[in-house]
Structures are given as structure tokens and as C-alpha cells.
Automatic annotation (TrEMBL):
One of its GO terms (cellular component) is cytosol. Belongs to the SmpB family. PANTHER family: SSRA-BINDING PROTEIN, TMRNA-BINDING COMPONENT OF TRANS-TRANSLATION TAGGING COMPLEX. Keywords: Cytoplasm, RNA-binding. Residues 136-156 are annotated as: Disordered. It holds the Pfam family SmpB. The keyword Secreted does not apply. It comes from [Clostridium] methylpentosum DSM 5476. This is SsrA-binding protein. Required for rescue of stalled ribosomes mediated by trans-translation. Binds to transfer-messenger RNA (tmRNA), required for stable association of tmRNA with ribosomes. tmRNA and SmpB together mimic tRNA shape, replacing the anticodon stem-loop with SmpB. tmRNA is encoded by the ssrA gene; the 2 termini fold to resemble tRNA(Ala) and it encodes a 'tag peptide', a short internal open reading frame. During trans-translation Ala-aminoacylated tmRNA acts like a tRNA, entering the A-site of stalled ribosomes, displacing the stalled mRNA.
């Protein structure tokens, strides 16, 4: 992959934006082994039920499924093992304070390649209630109806 600095998205966690309000997002590196990177290049990853937690000044992602690489034989690791994220100590300390005091959650939003390195976009999120989800759906439907009406008028 060329060293251009562009992003190549591997996986998105669409459910996260549906279930949470994303207050802020951060970029973190992720500690992987070679066969996991090869699986990521094929797009064999699932972020659906994953979350992050902070323990002893380090941040980890739990529940991220990276499928085993077919040609990996003995070098393949457990697909849902806990993986360490790489961030600055100050960022981790700030996130730890917000998660503990204000009731936020750390949710992986997307996984992507950034100039041959794998990065994880991490969201500082607050949970949505059922009525919030309904309000979002109503806004989306209203927007869709307005765009349909505009298209009809421009044709008519």
C-alpha cells in the first residue's frame, strides 16, 4: 500500500451510531499480529458488539472479531481475543475520567488503514433511550419525504 496518508476503511460499526450519541471521537493504533493484518486486508472483521475499557492505565478493545487467516496455520490467534489499543497516556487518563465520572462508554466506530497502519476510530458515547431512537427515525423519514417532494416538483 502506498505511503499517501489516505484512509482505506476496513469496517464500520453502524450499530454504534444507532445506539449511542457520539460526543467525541479519537484515533488509536491497535496491537495486532501478522495474520490478523492479512485478514483485515481481506475485510474479515466485525465490530458489531465490541467495546473498549481502561485497565491499569492501558486501553483494550473487547469483542472485536477478526476471522482467522486461511493460510495462517499455527500463527493464527483467537478471533475474539482482547487487543490492546495504542494511545498517549494523557488521552487515556482523560478518557478514564470521563468514563468513570460522567457515565460515558468507549465504543469502536470504525477500523481503517492509514498509510499501511491499522487505526481504530474510538467514540466517547452516551447511550440513547428508545424515544431518542424514535426521534432520529422520525427526522430521517421527514428528510426523505422532503427530498422526494423536491424531486417531484423539479420533474413536474
Amino acid at each position: 500500500m502506498p505511503q499517501t496518508g489516505g484512509k482505506k476503511i476496513i469496517a464500520l460499526n453502524r450499530k454504534a451510531r444507532h445506539d449511542y450519541f457520539v460526543e467525541e471521537s479519537f484515533e488509536a493504533g491497535i496491537e495486532l499480529v501478522g495474520t490478523e493484518v492479512k485478514s483485515l486486508r481481506k475485510g474479515a472483521v466485525n465490530l458489531k458488539d465490541s467495546f473498549c475499557y481502561i485497565e491499569q492505565g492501558e486501553i483494550f478493545v473487547h469483542g472485536m472479531h477478526i476471522s482467522p487467516y486461511e493460510q495462517g496455520n499455527i500463527f493464527n490467534k483467537d478471533p475474539i481475543r482482547i487487543r490492546k489499543l495504542l494511545m498517549h497516556k494523557k488521552e487515556i487518563a482523560r478518557l478514564f475520567g470521563q468514563v468513570k465520572q460522567q457515565g460515558y462508554s468507549l465504543i469502536p466506530l470504525s477500523l481503517y488503514f492509514k498509510s499501511s497502519r491499522v487505526k481504530l476510530e474510538l467514540g466517547l458515547c452516551k447511550g440513547k433511550k428508545l424515544y431518542d431512537k424514535r426521534a432520529d427515525a422520525a427526522k430521517r423519514d421527514a428528510k426523505r419525504e422532503m427530498s422526494r417532494a423536491i424531486k417531484e416538483r423539479s420533474r413536474g
